[in-house]
Amino acid sequence: MNTFPKDFLWGASTSAYQVEGAWNEDGKEPSVQDVRPPVPGTTDFKVASDHYHHMKEDVQLFKELGLKAYRFSIAWTRVLPNGKLNPAGLQFYQELIDELLANGIEPIPTVFHFDLPASLQAQGGWSNRKTIDAFVEYCQVLFDNFGDRINYWQTINEQNMLVFAGAAIGGEQADWKDVFQGNHHMLVAQAKVMKLYHEGHYPGKIGPAPNIACVYPKTEAPEDMLAAEYMSAIRNWLFLDAAVFGTYNTMAWHILETLHAAPEVTEEDREIMLAGTADFIAFNYYNSMTVSGANTKGGGAKDQQSGFSLPGFFQMEQNEQLQTTAFSKWAIDPVGLRTTAHQIYSRYRLPLLITENGLGQEDILTEDGQVHDDYRIDYLNDHIQQVYLAIQDGVELFGYCPWSALDLISTHEGYKKRYGFIYVNRDDFDLKDLKRYKKDSFYWYQKVIQDNGLA
Ligand code: BGP
């Protein structure tokens, strides 16, 4: 029996635009996700899993599953549509938080998960400095309204993937200079918000939620090791060094200068970044990366997890040791999760929370309402095993929130790519009855939580 620490937060995750639906109800403004054309062969995010109208029923299912925590995101566009406070939007999250607490589930909100208000995007989005102030104002509203009941806040979901895979997840493809100026504004906005939170003396903790993946050298060649270091610097440590140390990672900065993409950083920005730092680190992990250092031709990211190359620094490679997922051909690497946790913890010595990890696959609902997703159970089992071992190794890791609590719309592959413990009866082009069914993985995870570990 692999028993976990007593108060370990067994959780599950979702994000607002992927699960809620009700994209234009009760005063909500469209986000960049609502206005983007659907990826060919998929549908849009407008109904999603209709969680907005099934919230109480879904929380009851989370309770039955035994969740100790639920990680969700708050839609900026509900709370401050076109910059104006919307009580109806706040009310939804008020009720969700109350409902979770009443059922013994720790609410873990992410403030911003890929769904920038469309009105801000029309003014340049993150490349416009004014978006910093809009973000700070939005977060102050959240702290004022929910600050007394939230123990763990996450600022920005996968800021690094917004930068490297922006086009796949609803952003706009811009040149590197623009992308990294926008990235810098996000870092300053995040630091301002963390400072604001600390100065408000709220009872909880706040931190970032990037996608972090260990990077393997393709061979034992020293150039490959150096390439792996470069990729880690620009993909991982740039984001965490900024959030935890309040400074830019030096290797990452060198890459940015070489690409003519170093942002303009004012003296005031520097001070803000140093003054607003994280209390804990939430991170998402789906797979590891592998790179080589020779013949670095370049090549952009096709989605959040598949890696990318930078000429002169590193070339993404296939890892022949690892199997890949059926859907997107992402490497399956549970040991890589343990290595990633080691790397983060030894660099930053802050408590860690895993906020995403999971397997997207097509599921089949049988005529008698069952879903036999043993592939998902295997995937999660192997990763949980490594989480256990990471804790044994001394990593301070206090929770695991796999993606996703219930089926939802994939970032770029529609509804058929499912992740949930709970099946939602709809497909890409037919909304059906949106009825909820418990998958085999639901019963399996329920037992893991009951036993506080793997048998
Ligand atoms: C992460 C995102 C999630 C989620 C997940 C799975 O990068 O934070 O929002 O979508 O990836 O990816 P996908 O939906 O593309 O399969």
List keywords for this structure.
3-stranded mixed β-sheet, alpha/beta, binds 6-O-phosphono-beta-D-galactopyranose, TIM Barrel, 8-stranded parallel β-sheet
What is the gist of this entry?
The chain is an alpha/beta fold and 455 residues long.
Q: Can you lay out the helices and strands and say which pair or pack?
A:
Elements lengths: L1 E2 L5 E5 L2 H4 L12 H4 L15 H15 L3 E5 L2 H4 L7 H16 L3 E7 L5 H4 L8 H17 L5 E6 L1 H6 L11 H24 L5 E5 L5 E3 L4 H23 L5 H9 L8 H9 L5 E4 L4 E4 L22 E2 L17 H15 L3 E5 L17 H19 L4 E4 L21 E3 L11 E3 L1 H12 L1 E2 L1
Parallel strand pairs: 2-3, 2-12, 3-4, 4-5, 5-6, 7-9, 8-11, 11-12
Antiparallel strand pairs: 1-15, 9-10, 13-14
Helix pairs in contact: 3-5, 7-9, 9-12, 10-11, 13-14
Bound molecules: 6-O-phosphono-beta-D-galactopyranose.
Describe the overall structure.
The chain has 15 helices and 15 strands. Strand 11, helix 14 and strand 12 form a beta-alpha-beta unit. The strands form four sheets. Strands 6-5-4-3-2-12-11-8 form an eight-stranded parallel beta sheet. The chain has a three-stranded mixed beta sheet with strand order 7-9-10, with helices on one face. A two-stranded antiparallel ribbon has the order 1-15. With 455 residues, the protein is α/β, with parallel strands linked by helices. The chain starts with a strand and ends with a strand. It is globular, with a radius of gyration of 21 Å. Helix 9 packs across helix 12 and helix 10 crosses helix 11. It has a single domain, classed as Glycosidases (TIM Barrel).
